[in-house]
Amino acid sequence: MGVTIGVNTRLAANQAGFGQAMSKGVDKELAGKALRELDSYIRDAQGNLRQGDIRIVNTTNDKQLKFKFKSFGWGPQYRTERTADALVGLLTQAGVQGAQAKVDAVLKNKGNQAGYARLNAESLSTLLKDPAVRTKIYSETQHISRFMQDQGYQFAAQSKAGGQGTAHFAKFAGKDQVVKLFTTNGANLEPQSFKGERNKETKSEYFASYLGSSTNAEWKKPLVVAPSQYIVRKGEGFEALSTEQVRARVKAAKRGGDSVVCVGLVMDKAPGTEVKHLPSMKPGDAASKGLAKSGLQTLRALNERGFIHRDIKPENMSFDPVRKEAHFFDTGMMFKSHKPAAGLLDKSRDALIGWVNGVGAGEGNLPIKGLGTNGYYHSRVAQGTPCGSQADLHAFALTLLEKTYPGLKALTLAPSNRPDQDPDDPQYISGDEFLPRLQELSAANSRTTNDARTDAGRFLDDLKKPNSYAHFINKCLQAANEIKPGQWANRAFSNQKLDDLMNHPALQD
């Protein structure tokens, strides 16, 4: 068995000068391809290293470079030397500095410095795992994937590219995992530099590292799929850090150390089915109640600690039909606000004192225009004014609306005829516009789909019943939109509002 690379060496493999002659027939592209194939070739389908010896050249006179796996014998010493020559030639042509020394380090016989040891999968793996080698033969995202495979991750074929990166599905120790790489357009790596700054304009997965624990023993952990490891740069290679380790590194960076350059993360696969792909739910049935109650409990737990997800939508939620629980994921836009200092919040004037200005250096500034997803923006975020965790409640209410009144998609609701609206401006529906927009859509002559017209009328009819699911959704939208930022920033106040919503009659058994 073997993988052939069509390269004529012009010399038989058992002649002197084979390595130099071979290098002349292999260009950089072909050398990189050969090394990548070798890197895959040394492992079986389960990811385990093959047993036995490997020779990279045949020793007949057909003058072609081959990979050949042997589980028995080896023969004359020149075969091992020609394999070493081939490795040096491939690495050199791929652009690896010090190729000869790297090959000698893994193949030179300790007791016989003049000769080479047999090449096996373990020694070849050691060589090809060298970051200086991988950076030459792989793209950066491929380099990271190979690094994670070295850690024991077995990748599935499918991946999912999104606005916050590319999610690769994998298994580790029998558990379903997601390895998310920070890419743009599904390919180009866009690392995040963690410095611990609360920057309203910068996307950062760093804040999600605080989701797993709290100094408050009574805090209930939110149902958010949070990172378990962060993949960060280490020299020319990478390392995987726990959440505790990455927080310690970032604290050191704030004291003057180097910032943490993060290229991706690892998290558990969200349980259940992505909400986007769920069939429609009947308003007020067990599934819709479970989705609403568990989601509100998570929003309250996030609000309690000052977390704002900032990108809640059906694509970033899953639903476990057995436990009737919603789980949020994709924490790339998450923000953690400062808690207002006691006595600085002026409740009588609903002021922002202490929330925006009282924490110093503007670090309390909250989500602004441009962060979020079209249709799900809170009006304040769309208009570029400060907005806290009520933005999450607004987006969650629209998600519930879509699953129970499926004709009323978020982008269907968003008006397109506001005065002075630019086509590139964020699209949104405000609390004040919601019911008038439904009246407009439900009209017999409305320019919309039949599903939107029907569900707008159905929602308005259901809204007349104070115990209905429609009434509950409208209450969520009003709470998110009518309460002023200064009031909502008081976490005791906003927590009580979320408690009130969880006690709505529509959610009770």
Describe this structure in words.
With about 500 residues, this protein is α+β, with helices and mostly antiparallel strands. Helix content is about 35%, strand content about 20%. The chain is built from 17 helices and 19 strands. The strands form 6 sheets. Strands 6, 7, 8, 11, 12, 13 and 14 form a 7-stranded antiparallel β-sheet that branches. Strands 1-3-2 form a 3-stranded antiparallel β-sheet. A 3-stranded antiparallel β-sheet has the order 15-17-18. Residues about 5-15 and about 340-365 have low confidence and may be disordered.
The N- and C-terminal alpha carbons lie at a distance of 65 Å
Main sheet characteristics: 7 strands, antiparallel
Oligomer: single chain
Derived structural class: alpha+beta
The percentage of residues in β strands lies in 15-25%
What gyration radius follows from the Cα positions, in whole Å? Answer: 29 Å
Tell me the number of helical segments per DSSP (H or I, 4 or more residues long): 17
Give the mean pLDDT.
83
Ranges where pLDDT stays below 50 over 5 or more residues in a row are 6-13, 341-364
Shape: elongated
Helix content: 25-40%
Total count of strands: 19
